[in-house]
Structure formats: structure tokens, C-alpha cells
Amino acid sequence: MDYSTDIHWRFGQVVTAVREYVEEQMQLGFLELEENENQLRDRTSSYADLDLTGLRELAVACEKCELSKTRTHVVFGTGNEQADLMFVGEAPGADEDQQGQPFVGRAGQLLTKIIEASGLTRDQVYIANVLKCRPPGNRNPKSSEIESCEPYLIRQVMLIQPKVICALGTFAAQMILRTDAKISNLRGHFHSYHGIKVMPTYHPAYLLRNPGGKRQVWEDIQKVMAELNLSIPRPDAS
């Protein structure tokens, strides 16, 4: 092998190693390739002139995917429209589908307790889901459904402009961060979504099945509150 060939071979090895490293880090959630502003505008162009009221009206009438045929109510989102903290879950469940409000079932009651333990109320935060309609039987969202619903969430985030997004569970975190990394690898670290900090953590429904995860979620919430420069009240000693 002559010198020139050796140099090209070594360069190829370096490129391959760097590519593999970047792909590994992205899968772990430690690197994210941000979309540029033109890409973001392309995916939200139909909603760019809408405020939250107009966006809600459009979502309520939405028939872009098959979930429109099985839903009872569209679950758009609720809370403070100028909130510094936004919680984003996966999709409505049976209780949410019946009431048209996010996180009102058992998982929602646990989320309320977490919010209140942090010193806030539901009225002080904004709560939404990636999907606005319930998948039948609470099955996992299909990629086509996420693609159809994603522009609604993106526009919600752009309008509310929270300082921190708390992504609840695998699907919410993966959609927001554009990654396939597991929630166990993503949680506990801040990530970026168009300049907004994102803290992924376990979904409250997961905690109902795995109470041992509550400690990790509380650690994540403590980091969120510190980022917002808010103190968590001490438990009442009495």
C-alpha cells in the first residue's frame, strides 16, 4: 500500500468511526440534530397564523387520520397559556376521551400530585399530549398518527413558549427530541427543542405499574424546578 492509498484508507476509517460515534450518541439521546427554522415552518405552515383558540377549533374538526372515526372528544390541552412549564404526554386515555381534558384518569391524578408537590397547581402549568385523539384500546400511536398530529403540538409550543417542557413517557420524548433512544437513557438530562429545554421522565401511568420509578421522576422534577428558579416546598412537619 503506497502513502497516498494509506492516507485515504486512514481517512475513511476516521470518517466511519466518527459516524458510528454520532449515531450511537444520538440513539442515547446525548446528541440531537436540530431542525432548522425553514423545516419547522414547513411542518406548521398551515397553522402559522392561528392562535390557541383557532388551533383548538381546527383540532376539534380534524379528520386527518383514522382516530377521528373512533374518538369521543378531541383532547386539545389545558392550563396556563403563558406557562413557564409545559407537560406533554403520549395520548388521551379512556377518561380523557370521555371528558375532553388531558390527564384526568388515575395517571392524571398522580400527575396532579406531582405538580402540587413541586409547589405548583395545574392552573399554573400547561398540559397536552402528542396525539389529540385516543388510540383504540390505548394501543401505541402509529407513526402516521403522530405525523398528522405533530403540527398541532408544535404550534402549541410555539404559542405558549414555555421555558421547560417535561416530556412524559417514551413516545412524547421520542417525538419531541426526534430520537429512538429509550426513556431510561433520556431522562435525568436536559435536552433542547428549538431553544426550549426538555426534561424527559417516566409517564405517570408507568409509575402506577412501577412505583419504584417515583424517586427518579421526583429527581427529574427537582431539576426542572431548579431550572425555573422555583423552590420546592418542604413537607409539612406537622
Number of helices: 10
Spell out the helices and strands N to C: HHHEEHHEHEHHEEHH
Q: What is the number of independent domains? A: 1
The best one-word shape is globular
Largest sheet: 6 strands, mixed
Beta fraction: 5-15%
Strand-pairing-aware structural class: alpha/beta
Instruction: Please compute the radius of gyration using only Cα atoms.
Output: 20 Å
CATH architecture classification: 3-Layer(aba) Sandwich
Distance between the termini: 79 Å
Average pLDDT, all residues: 85
Q: What percent of the residues sit in helical stretches (DSSP H or I)?
A: 40-55%
Please identify the top-level CATH class: Alpha Beta
Give me the CATH fold name.
Uracil-DNA Glycosylase, subunit E
Uncertain segments are 7-37
Task: List strands and helices in order, with pairings.
Elements: H1 3-28, H2 37-44, H3 52-60, E1 78-79, E2 85-89, H4 94-99, H5 106-117, E3 126-129, H6 143-160, E4 164-168, H7 170-177, H8 183-186, E5 191-193, E6 196-201, H9 204-209, H10 214-227
Parallel strand pairs: 2-3, 2-4, 4-6
Antiparallel strand pairs: 1-3, 5-6
